[in-house]
Amino acid sequence: MERLSGPDLDVRRAVPEDDAAVVPMLREALGKVDDPHYEGLLHWKHRENPFGQSPGWVAVHEGRVVGYRTFLRWRFLDDNGKTVPAVRAVDTATDPAYQGMGIFRTLTLQSVAELTLAGDAIVFNTPNDQSRPGYLKMGWSLARRLPVGVLPAGGRSALTMVSSRVPASLWSEPTTVGLDAATALADGDVASRLLEHAPRRGFRTDRTPEYLAWRTSFEPLHYRLLLASPGDPSEGGLVFRLRRRGQALEAAVIEQLVPDWRTGARLVHRALKESGADYAIGLRTGPSAGLLPLPGQGPLLTTRPLAGSPPPPSAWTLTLGDVELF
């Protein structure tokens, strides 16, 4: 189809008044038409994020919003503890009547140019197989395959896990194991004591009490906090949620804030035993413990320089909480 450009297409920063056109377009493009939590999820990640509200761009043709592109604000610490402002390429959609006209590329390149001028250092994401080639053509590079780790609850659970290699459900299964993470981590003192065990090396998310409170606060995700010592967060803890993946019940470990490997492994075993999950899953970067490597199965991390340069591939120290969901 013919590409739209120049005076045919107006690309500008999105404003809240665009939501009436943007949200239905996103629902349609991303298969969220019947999802009752979807608008709440968008508000949580784009408007409540402690790293800042998400910048977005719209493409307008003859007064009609026909494309949308947004980036989630993020903040990293490098190996020396210096903060690095970043963005993550996330939600994008094009009106079905305008697909194939280059709108996604136009929006993305315009936003990348503006983010670079604004001083954001890098953009990162974990695109799927369908969208990755498009990003690579626009200057993204493959950084690394993020190493996944798993721990089955037992032999039968291992078989269930192997036979359930399908996408996981977005929404969580409720459980009473541990503490409600949103409530517990809204207490800045609890979060601060847990963060005494946050990673100190590598290129990692700038974890603050405000970040932990926000990251676990969206109620439909049902995040749980399992403490190593009841009532004493200074001994470490694990944040997880339960989700369905085919026939399996999966315990997704998004954070391990623990003083040592033994404590982390013990918490993973407890989460499995007390929740009845078939297996635990997380990323084996940073302080992860108790998870066995699952070679060749992690998401592919891609990056693009903006006003700065991405770190070496080996420097990335991410958890599942950094990459799941967004």
Automatic annotation (TrEMBL):
One of its GO terms (molecular function) is acyltransferase activity, transferring groups other than amino-acyl groups. Pfam families: Acetyltransf_9. It comes from Intrasporangium calvum (strain ATCC 23552 / DSM 43043 / JCM 3097 / NBRC 12989 / NCIMB 10167 / NRRL B-3866 / 7 KIP). Residues 9-166 form the N-acetyltransferase domain. InterPro entries: Acyl_CoA_acyltransferase, GNAT_dom. This is N-acetyltransferase domain-containing protein.
